[in-house]
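TASK: fixed-backbone design
INPUT:
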């Protein structure tokens, strides 16, 4: 793409930026610039630009506001000790957005254009990438929305792809600790033929009421079962799951109605290198409960871009509870190995890291 750049004349001052980066939280502060490119059937992708960060002006009839034709991605940029900035498997995020776009009837943004857009914005706003101390990073949010002014159920004829960035602190501010999960048997996240494997906002909106239920029960996250039989574990509200057996092998629910996480696929490769085979298959809630109770399942963990890897403790449901698994040893080994690659503290033998600037 030919990207036109208009730099902001109202940059966040250095002193204020230092305060923000010292305690960025998550999704609270945003960098000085944003990337935009538009699509129409006649012109294709055009008008690629980096401009000062600011509000969007949308007509009340803009299609995304009424029909939820929208996809997004989540990824991070990491600063190494030498000051360089790297992203983690950006081409995989780009490829997943292509798959999501197909499911949402969007035009496909080429993988190389997606990566170029992210690189360009991160380079312009590189001063916003925190130092690695405390697992800080720059969270990157590419997204695509239907921006045609039109009321009617059909694919939008005007589409806007954007990238914004936000500095992020460690997901676990007081250290990694097991999360408690609530099993919902009333709500499901996606069914066969639905949008569960697409990264679209509607999937997350559908999880919110179940998450409220989990919070009311004193739990950190909610577990969803399959929509057809309410038997098989799918995923959490925004994380994939793994189950470690006493013989060292690992099981993770098969995809199809769940999101194919970039962290998820990386852990499958990483666990294999550490000598642990990973089996992708249907995994029932009874196998979870019985396995933990008998000691056959020694660890349970979840993964996602924000938390990276987190151990899972107790599983609760209406009228019952499974105790926390006996160990977190392998969970923490996998987590540390992955984080060390991301921050450049370990050799990247997989070729996952992408140098930005």
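OUTPUT:
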């Amino acid at each position: 793409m030919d990207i036109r750049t208009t730099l902001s004349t109202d940059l966040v001052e250095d002193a204020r930026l230092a305060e923000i980066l010292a305690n960025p939280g998550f999704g609270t502060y945003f960098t000085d610039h944003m990337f935009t490119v538009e699509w129409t059937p006649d012109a294709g992708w055009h008008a690629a630009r980096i401009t000062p960060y600011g509000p969007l002006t949308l007509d009340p009839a803009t299609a995304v506001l009424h029909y939820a034709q929208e996809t997004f991605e989540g990824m991070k940029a990491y600063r190494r000790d030498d000051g360089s900035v790297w992203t983690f498997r950006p081409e995989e995020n780009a490829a997943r957005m292509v798959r999501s776009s197909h499911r949402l009837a969007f035009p496909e943004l080429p993988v190389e254009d997606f990566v170029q857009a992210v690189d360009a914005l991160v380079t312009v706003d590189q001063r916003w990438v925190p130092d690695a101390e405390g697992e800080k990073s720059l969270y990157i949010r590419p997204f695509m929305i239907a921006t045609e002014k039109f009321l009617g159920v059909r694919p939008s004829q005007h589409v806007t792809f954007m990238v914004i960035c936000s500095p992020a602190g460690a997901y676990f501010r007081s250290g990694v600790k097991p999360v408690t999960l609530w099993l919902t048997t009333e709500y499901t996240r996606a069914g066969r033929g639905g949008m569960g494997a697409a990264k679209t906002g509607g999937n997350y909106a559908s999880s919110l009421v179940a998450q409220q239920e989990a919070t009311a029960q004193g739990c950190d996250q909610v577990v969803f079962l399959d929509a057809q039989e309410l038997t098989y574990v799918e995923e959490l509200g925004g994380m994939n799951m793994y189950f470690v057996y006493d013989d060292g092998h690992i099981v993770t629910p098969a995809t199809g109605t769940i999101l194919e996480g970039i962290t998820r696929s990386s852990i499958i490769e990483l666990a294999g290198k550490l000598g642990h085979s990973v089996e992708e298959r249907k995994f029932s809630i009874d196998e979870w409960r019985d396995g933990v109770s008998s000691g056959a399942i020694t660890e349970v963990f979840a993964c996602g871009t924000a938390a990276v890897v987190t151990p899972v403790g107790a599983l609760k449901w209406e009228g019952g509870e499974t105790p926390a698994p006996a160990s977190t040893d392998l969970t923490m080994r996998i987590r540390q190995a992955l984080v060390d690659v991301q921050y450049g503290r370990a050799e990247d033998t997989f070729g996952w890291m992408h140098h930005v600037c």
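COMMENT: The domain at 179-342 is CATH 3.20.10.10 (D-amino Acid Aminotransferase; Chain A, domain 2).
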